[in-house]
Amino acid sequence: MKKSKLLFLWITLILWNTSDAQKTGIFDGHGDIGINVKPGAATYIPESGQYVISGAGENVWADHDEFHFVWKKMKGDFLLYTKAEFLGNWVTYHRKVGWMVRKSLDGNSPHVNAVEHGDGLTSLQFRRTAGAVTEEIKSKITKANIIQLERKGSTYTMRVAKYGEPFVTEQVTNIDLGDEVYVGLFVGSHNADVIETGVFRDVRITVPFNGDADNSTQMTLGSNLELMDIASGDRQIIYTVPYSIQAPNYTNDGKSLIFNGSDGLVYNFDLKSRTPRLINTGTIKSNNNDHVLSFDGKMIGLSSTVKELGGSIIYTVPLAGGTPSQITPKGPSYLHGWSPDGKSLVFCGERNGEYDVYKVPATGGTEVKLTTEKGLDDGPEYTPDGKYIYFNSVRSGLMQIWRMKPDGSEQEQVTTDDFNNWFAHISPDGKGMVFLSFLKEEVVPGVHPPYKHVYIRYVPITGGTPKVLAYVYGGQGSINTPSWSPDSKSIAFISNSDMTK
Hints:
seven-stranded antiparallel β-sheet
């Protein structure tokens, strides 16, 4: 059902002011903050994942606030994300939508909020103590519709963007709201007599990893299996588990996804029933997140740890399951691509202390080294027409996307920006690619750890400025493998959160 129709259904509902005990979506309650505030309302639309919130109130400013708040209680650190927009024309340019963290539900409570105003002003606002005057840090951009607010101890970080662009960041420190706080979405009209409405989608509340994750970090956080529509950017969580699953591949018929679990096994996830089924891989049960489907959809290539052979070894097995065939004699060998004609596999292999891209017959045989530059070359993947192999390399400083002919010739750099870019996946129609981008402030070029702030970005195969499709808490295991739907309209990926708290 289209967004406009869903909103029409909501608008036809009678507005009411519910009690704070009324559960709405992932939130525990909602209600009006302040005294004698014109009643607001909140509705969750499961079909679209939208929260439609209406609120009035004189202002969220000075020494007290009036607005409508949809909240849940939380302790510890967290990361809040949404795509937020106003509904209808505005009456006053200071109407507000955003995230709010409050010590209490009192109107004069200490708080921090990340907010977009009706005129586009985007800012980080905070009241340090009860009844104190609100302070503000204005963002360098306006009209942001992507709003993220993170708490780490007493530090609050606002990250905002116009959808498709990287975040712009502001931060405030030494804000003590106590360990347990009210966390949620809010709408204020800046006019006591007027109700304004905000629409929030892709709402995510993430509990991050407790520590500094690196490549050796055991992946123990919970996982959200998400689908994203490329044209609209809309995201949908279709499966959630409190443990690690990684690297979803679409099957050729578009009816299921293949992913690996932290148990070293590989699963076929049926998209209709939303249930996983174990794929029989015989005695090969230490599979990692470097698995690839053949272009004809009949086979799956695996990368599985065999310590006595030097680490990850490549195997192939029918997608329906069976006895795997060993392809590489030694490791580490991490599979990333299968040629369209089914004859060759490409992988990242460590040989004599250097990680390079190699090609090997899909039935096994002699390895051919395709890259020779010093430093890590990783993530090789064929284009659907078989004319190029895309890969990522640190040879220019940061990790960037490169491509070459299938024989290793004509190696050329594709991305040239200020991120560490990994794992280019070419759409089945050959028109574009998605890849994972780490912030250089968080990781060094040669590593791709889990549990970081990452972007999934898209760029046409002909080039251009990459567009941010998804703002994700993840990294390792999010899109290590080809993740496009067969019709090139959507991608699958993994986001992470600690679901034990």
